[in-house]
Amino acid sequence: MDAEAIAIQEEMPPVVEATKTVKKVKEPVKSQEDSIMELPGVGAATAEKLISSGYDDLMSIGVATPGQLVAVSGVTESTARKIIKSARDSLDMGFISGTDVMAKRDAVLKITTGVPAFDEMLGGGFETGCITECFGQYGSGKTQIAHVLAVNTLIAHPDSTIIYIDTENTFRPERITQFAKANKLDPDETLAHIKVAKAYNTDHQMLLAEKVEELIKKGDDVKLVIVDSLTAHFRAEFVGRGTLAERQQKLNKHMHVLSKIADMYNLSVYVTNQVMSKPDQFFGDPTEAIGGHIVGHNSTFRIYLRRGKKGTRVAKLIDAPNMPDAECVFNVVEGGLEEA
Ligand SMILES: Nc1ncnc2c1ncn2[C@@H]1O[C@H](COP(=O)(O)OP(=O)(O)O)[C@@H](O)[C@H]1O
Ligand SMILES: [Mg+2]
Question: CA 10, 14, 18, 23 torsion: positive or negative?
Answer without folding.
Answer: negative
